[in-house]
Amino acid sequence: KPFGMDDTVERVVQRLRDDPETAGLLKIFEGGIGLVGNITRFVECKETVEESYRKAKRSLLWQSKNRPFDVTREDVIVELTSGKVRCLGMATNGVQFYSVRAADHFAASEPCGHPRESTAKLMYALLRHAEDCSARKSQEKSDTAQPNAGKIGVVFDMDNFGRCNIDRGVLKELGGLVSKYFPGRIHVCYVVNVSMFGRGLWYMIRILVKTKWLELINFLSDPAELVDAIDIDLALWPREYGGNLELDGEAWIDASATAISRNLPYVAPTRQSSTPSGDAATS
Q1: Which helix (H) or strand (E) holds 87?
Q2: Are strands 186-192 and 152-157 parallel, antiparallel or unpaired?
Q3: Phi-psi domain of 282 (left: phi exceeds 0; alpha: psi -120 through 50; beta: other)
Q4: Are 195 and 158 in contact (CB under 8 A)?
Q5: What's the CA gap between 85 and 253, in Å, rounded?
Q6: Which of 77, 87, 139, 239 is most buried, judging by how many CB atoms fall within 10 Å of its CB?
Q7: How far apart are CA 86 and CA 251, in angstroms?
């Protein structure tokens, strides 16, 4: 039995090994956070072995056909330095944080006519990056049983959000994609800089959101409150969100590309305001 595998996870794995349709597909779950980590995510989201097995089977069959993690390190660099999402580093609990600026996303975003494919590819890149960073941290600590391995924390920045930034089709499809095939990966979502329009929109759509998703979403009145909610090195956290890092767009892109190429959770841009840390990576 692999290190960290409890009885429930072991039973789900055995069901998948005994199933002719999935027996040869388990290698799909061996990359990134590993077999135990992947199956644990399904077990966390379902109450019974049978339900966990069915959902894991569905994910395996879908991934074997669509191959979402065929994204290369170069693909990840392209997606995470596009400006549509920013890597904010790994918190001390092992959750990899990213920020998404709503104003940078448009309903007709490129590639023209295929916003869903574009959004899905970005999601695959985020998951691949989070898993790579978790795997690296696990190797450093010689510990393969990290409870938050491969989990993502998201800061949704609603500053300058407007009607042109709404694409209900993409949001619905992306939510279904994560829920069906990558359960338990979203650890927490913090929403900041919300306008009256944004709050009104949220109150209209929240009735359509499942309770388990609502429990992950937290609205903060002040972006600086993020440093109270997330235990992270302030020298590597943007000043706009309560940290000490004076974020420069160009320097951030260069630092992100460097971090991804080195398989690091984050490398701080060299231009900082008061707390010098050079190119230090999060521990």
Answers
A1: strand 85-90
A2: parallel
A3: beta
A4: yes
A5: 11
A6: 87
A7: 12
